[in-house]
Amino acid sequence: MKIPSIPLPKLPNLGALLRRRGGGGMRLPPVLAGLVARLRGLPLPPAFPAAVLMVVGITIGAVLWLWMNTDDTLKLRAEAVQRITVPITGGAAPAAKAEPGKTAPAASDHAPGEVPKGGAPSADPAVVLGPGPDEAFPLAKAPAQGMTEESRNGLLPAIAADGSQAWQVYGRPFAKGDKRGRIAIIIGQMGLAGAATGLAMQRLPPGVTLAFVPIADRLEGWIEAARSQGHEVLLSVPMEPLSYPHDDPGPNTLLLALDAAHNVDRFEWALGRFAGYVGVISPTGSRFSAEPNALRPILETVKKRGIAWVDARTTPYSVGDLLAVDLGLPRAHVDRIIDQDPSRGGIDTALAALEAIAAEEGAAVGYGEPYPTTLERVLKWVPLLPDKKLILAPLSAVINLQKPPPPPPARPDEKH
């Protein structure tokens, strides 16, 4: 079968097209001009397929139309965009964001060295003088000048000459005087698994507090990354659990079998692992935290170092919070382990319980670990808080705002 052929039509007068565009002296772009010249001088076979010629013609026509109408198209698009001018009638100027390498101005509830008294803040909730929980910025440089003490376990935190304490200086600025109920969320076991740690830091809002274990690899790098994003950090101290030695928290665990001097030395080893934490927590110390004679020397060291104590309350027999009150420590305690039931429904129920506590008492603390479901539920929960007159707060913003728990019940004799 013979393929039909058509003669090559005469190409349009490009000069006339340019004059229509309003630029008689203008030229085609070099690439397009070269293509046209090649086509005009190209010797075609006697049976040039009509379909090929049609495709070439349509392509050239489309390119020419787009090139000639660019200015008109952009003009029409610009005219079609609606613009609204909104007058500003007053109100405070927005807070300045921290420049790279600088720290955002603090809006702390407490003066350096001052331990606030219990009770919820009473200022107008509309007054917001600090950053929101989603705002990322670097926290104060650590270690701060004049706030360390050299030891054989490294640099330990120390109270400054002017009374400044680590739990305040290294804390995340908070909306001073905010009347809404405050909920602090602590995600622990950070640093043990690199993937889980990185995912938590990537997904969670900076208002979430992160607790790092002292045995983590690349610990200083993790701490720097967390604090540069605005996460307040805690040191997770290994203490003896009820299930020890079947469950061993790791090297330098504080043990009931050791005397006070050895446990304090182990504790200071953990304190010297990195700088910039506001306090310590021990989610493993279900046995150690129930023994006042063993725990008191540790809490006395906490007070000496100007850091906060967070009672994880992994046992109903913990005396940590009561001893902290007795010693006058900056303190907090965990009200709910949010992923004790790790299902979505279980986590949501625990978060709802924290809401109720914060609404009634002014402050609540939840603890969880960086499981994917925990991160997912917390991430979806945080934006719902403002409508409930609640706010996500760093741990330092709830220090001494929680009511002390009642004395622990009498312990049954433990069988070993």
CATH level-1 class of the largest domain: Alpha Beta
- Structural shape: globular
Ranges where pLDDT stays below 50 over 5 or more residues in a row are: 1-29, 73-128
Fourth-level CATH superfamily of the largest domain: Glycoside hydrolase/deacetylase
CATH topology of the largest domain: TIM Barrel
Structure report:
By secondary structure, the protein is of the alpha/beta class. It folds into 2 domains: 61 residues; 251 residues, TIM Barrel (Alpha-Beta Barrel), CATH 3.20.20.370. Helix content is 32%, strand content 11%. The chain has 12 helices and 11 strands. Strands 3, 4, 5, 6, 7, 8, 9, 10 and 11 form a 9-stranded parallel beta sheet that branches. Strands 1-2 form a two-stranded antiparallel ribbon. Helix 8 runs parallel beside helix 9, helix 9 crosses helix 10 and helix 11 packs across helix 12. The longest helix has 19 residues. The protein is globular and about 90 Å long. The N terminus is likely disordered.
